[in-house]
Amino acid sequence: MQSFQKKFQEYRWDSIHERIYNVGHADVRRSLHKTKKTMDDFLVLLSPTASQSLEEMAYMAQRLTQKRFGKTIQLFAPLYLSNECQNICTYCGFSMDNQLKRKTLSSIEIMQEAGALKAMGVNHVLLVSGEANKTVGLDYFLKAIKLLRPHFANISIEVQPLSQEEYYAVHQAGVNAVLVYQETYHEEVYKQYHPKGKKSNFAFRLDTPDRVGQAGLHKIGLGVLLGLEDWRVDSFFNALHIDYLQKTYWQTKYSVSFPRLRPAEGIIEPNFIMEDRDLLQLICAYRIWNPDLEISISTRENEKFRNHIISLGATTMSAASKTNPGGYVVDPQSLEQFETSDERSMDEIRNVIYQVGYEPIMKDWDNYW
Ligand code: SF4
């Protein structure tokens, strides 16, 4: 099977770290003004030295985003199907060792939650679950997708890594996109954060986007959990992964998300703090490096940051999100994955987008079947 592993093994964490922290001002000037940007330029734009050119980077990111995507923001909301999980991840509220009551939505409950999202005007939905193959496996997903397909223009999933055949099956059932985050590309550190369960297999997770690409999905979303390791180095590897996928599965679209570690029941504190200014630099670096990339901002981020990022590189935003199964109407008190920061309603977010001079998009995609 085609795999990112080979490319990944050509790079060493420590040497990438050293290169990022030794970038000079002349390197930044050169990378900013090159017509076609490479991975080396992305590395330069991530550096502490480049942060001194943040204003110029923000201007370039704004211009490139408007040129490629217009003044639009695509809106979506998550629908959490289950918080059951067979993994221990030390940063997640759903971790198996978190001794709290679990919930998996029944078919009726899925439709009740879907009704609440439709009432808010949601047309693009992201189905999320913990990783519990026995109760929330392929059959469960296919049933949920069949129920939801007639009601939503676009369905994405963020669930446990599946096999290529399973990705093909969910795609045939109507899933357009798969989001799968490596969390961190530091292999030793990855093992510490994922001590138990299938997710502790670093290589299997690393190969997951390849299986999605081979199954022919329309879009793949990647990201790292910002706060586990040095965000600059982790983001270099995440971009390297996207670069490889774009060249290998060139008919697929790509998106990047920026989950910053948020509080949740029973979880660890971040090891590395990422300030708002750092996140802005990272978003601008991605945009300048890759003008086609969708850039997705979740409700983990605070209102002020989200208001600003609308015009500085974002293309997609979640809104009014509940991160627990049944969170909209069925069981608002169930265990949540993490606390959201921006709790404004869908209408409030739409109004903010209009106020910035952008257009909120609830549906830009439809299926013919
Ligand atoms: S991050 Fe995913 S796999 Fe890990 S505990 Fe949370 S839901 Fe389970």
UniProtKB/TrEMBL annotation:
Its cofactor is [4Fe-4S] cluster. The keyword Ubl conjugation does not apply. This is 2-iminoacetate synthase ThiH. Residues 71-292 form the Radical SAM core domain. CDD domains: Radical_SAM. GO terms for biological process: thiamine biosynthetic process. Keywords: 4Fe-4S, Iron, Iron-sulfur, Metal-binding, S-adenosyl-L-methionine. It comes from Sphingobacterium gobiense. Gene3D superfamilies: Aldolase class I. It comes from the Bacteria. GO terms for molecular function: 4 iron, 4 sulfur cluster binding; catalytic activity; iron ion binding.
